[in-house]
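Sample intake — Phosphoribosyltransferase
Collected from: Nonomuraea guangzhouensis
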Amino acid sequence: MDLLFADRAQAGEMLAERLRGARNPLVLALPRGGVAVAVPIVRGIGGRLDVLVTRKIGYPPTPELGVGAIAEGGEPVFDLLLLRRLGMTPASVAEVVAEERRELARRVKVYRGDRPLPDIAGREVIVVDDGLATGATARAALRAVRVARPGRLTLAVPVGARDTVEAMREEADEVVVLRMPADFRAVGQWYEHFDQLSDADVLELLAEV
């Protein structure tokens, strides 16, 4: 079995070692867990930290099953194959998308207030999360950033399912991942401590850098 990360902070420190070639990057963390990974990255390599808020779009009868995701500044990204298998279309989840847009806007207000996202055009941007399972939220985030024309776009995660990581290479200029375990089932299984974070935890972390 692959070694576990002690926690998100340790994972971020290890990622920072792999990202030292970055020059004054804009590090965009996916709340909530990605923020705890991103803080030690910024401490290690410099640059600016901000959040990029994403929301999973759940299958209405079983919301835990994600059929897509949405990121601020971007359009919904759907798993069309899964939707077809479920006998649905994007229009079938329009109400869910509207609800998630409202929650996304609420979280943006909590984390950034009225301040907009930093200017992305031409910048080196690193999108950070605490792991990749299906990759839905990461895909939505990367596509939202890509529309803003970054100079270079990197996705950095401590751990991910191999198939998902390979799929993300089509969305980013570079994918930096520390571990792709063969027996990957869930992100949390690869951390000794994987506590759920609150909005207050996110704000406290953002205030540290």
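Post-analysis note: The first strand starts at residue 26 and ends at 29.
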